Amino acid sequence: MSNVSSIKNIPIENYSSIFDFLYKNTVEKTSNINISSNGVEIVDIDGNIQEPRSIAEFFSILSNDTAANIVSGLKTVDCEYEWYQDFVSFLDKTVLPTYETSCQSFFDTVDRIGATVTVGVQSLGEGILNVGEGIVDVLILAGSAVGTIGTGLADLWQIVNGNEAKYTSELWDSTMSTVSIDAVGDAFDSLYEDTEYGRNLMENAYFFDQVRGIGTGIGQVVGIVGLSLITFGLGSLASSGTVSVSLGQTSTIASIIGFGQGTEDAWADGASLLEGLFVGGANSFWEGIQYYVGGKIGTTTFFGNNGIISSITKNGFGTKVLDSLTRIFLDGFDGGAEGIVQPLIASIYKDGYYDESGNYIEFTKSDNFFKRYGEIFSDYGGVQNIFTNALIGSGSSLLGEVFDIKRFFAASDKNALNLQDEILDKINPNLDPIAKARQAYIELNKRLHYDMNYAKVDSNTKREIYNKILSLASIDTNNVICKGWSELYRDLLIECGFDPDKVRIVGSNKDFAHKWVEIELADDSLIIADATEAIVGPPDINKVKYGDTMMGFFRVTKNSAGLRLSKVSSDLLQEYSKYWRNLDKYLGYTNESGYYFSELINKADNLFANSNLYNQLLQNNQLNNLYDNILNLNIIEGMDATDAYYYYKQIVNNLFPNNYGSVLIYANKLKDIYESLVTIELPNINFYGLYSNSIGKKIFNTYDAFNKFIESLDLSRF
Amino acid sequence: MKNERLKELMEQKKNNLVTPLDQEKYQIVTELFKSDDCFFKMKMETAFGILDFLGVKEDEALTLYQELISQEVYQKVVPKQRLGISPKRK
Q: pTM for the whole thing?
């Protein structure tokens, strides 16, 4: 008989029992094919094979038989040395019992921690689903409210005909029985009570009720914020190209959900129809306030240069952490207040309380408000309930602060410009809103340039640039277009303490539409800020660098919302610009006499033109030496091609104001990376130069030689 | 203005303002020099006119102006710029 064995076999006889714990015994069924004169016979054979344990399995059984196996293995070794026998006896009698107990309790703890985390995570989901149920409840209530119009008419008809009016009461009985069901809560209760998986979690998790309660609470906050982003956020995306939601919008969503949840809880607790609706209204009001206050806390800067308390520290990581901890702490108060308000709302319908033995005691007429509130407060969990809700508030806040601090770290990346802190350092936090907005406008524009290549790239690239959302904390370029500038300016204003509700990015919804910023002031006037459109002369993003009068920042009445400044007559704008001079002097944008730097330059051009010195240098052809010296110099260490580009742009403009050549910047492709390359073309003096980090500086005396070299490179515009 | 030579020239000129025009010019130059990067924002002809007003001679003027608009000074007085975004398709 021939045996064809397919059993995998690991020889085990070479290993002593000490190492048995490294392997596990598994039984694998295989088949032998026996070929005999009787024909082909297939026989199932059980093969015992030893497979090495995985790391996870190894650690999972370490505390169980393993330690005992090791010791018993050691005991089987026949060793004559007394020290060995004493050692094994020590392990067996002293170490092993303690080890097993310690490991067991360690892994028990690990198991319990795992169960606790699992309950926490599941509860987040329960909280989010509760928000969904709240929406359903509100829709049912709204539907019944509308339906009451019909049933009311039907009942009226019944009454007129001498019959019982029943339709409205039937509608609302049905509504009450549907809404009062806590479908999500019941489902999760069933998970924890009726399934082995859930029971295991409930029995092993630390502080199961508290963890579930807090997790559910935080999950509800996540759900409400998420729902706000989906509803109002999409609206802002359509109008301004950015997803943003205001405090008012979030608190509106919270109010709506609060109405459904409040009504559900009250009806489930035995409240009458009207009592339940009244509780829903009160809860709606409270949730709206709570989320608004929470949102205010979340957007307030407490420390640093723009903090409301004091400038304890300059803007920096320490200030950021202090701010976050303060917000988390205050959100704890905001959340904890729930523990005081909820019993108050419940007192609308509660007619009794549960005593310590669990008996329901009805209130009597002699029980005053404080007695009733006190008993209901205890039923709700008393001080512990306040603490639990405070943890929900702080926990939700912590989630938000983690992402905010992450954004701060993103700005610490070496490629980020760290513009946010640099600009905030320059802004006086004690200025009134108009002055603060103007100073922010000036400081931002000093550091940004309009992306001149935007108009020259293909439409796909253009769309990519246009749709990219910029953030002040993580921007890695000085080049922007209108939409990006608007996003950065809005970011900056919010960091300065402006209400996000009051700062809007406006402009048409069309592709590549021009965008600018409107700021709503307390007196209902508006500030229009548009630094990237050429309104009167160059755009302000250029003008600010020369200390010139700005034309893109104006205060108008609220009726002018949506006004694009380029549509306003330039005479009117120039007339209005005079009114900013005093403020600009206060902000240090003009000199002490109130002159803009550009006005000083214009005066200087007139006063110092046609000097003897200049004429002498011209006559003696000495300016050619100057051009040679400046243009032929190597780029110094620490100056890259981008710096060289901006440097030569200014120098060439000053040297040849009437006969301007061109200074351009390209991307030069080197295998898989790009580098910046600057070209300088000055045909009037036959100077053609280029510079990049890899090529260095090259100068050509003819355009042909220059152009030939350029064509040999793989250049594209930025 | 951080350039020591210019500070010296301004000090000397301060005691030598003869006419009201001189005083006006001196006032303008004082205001301009409050910006460290002023020479990067004015035409070359204007810059030489200021140096002439301060008494700089022809043999010194080119060297001084070259120093005032050098890459080293530019690096010190103008904030670093970065284009950042990687280049796009042609």
A: 0.53
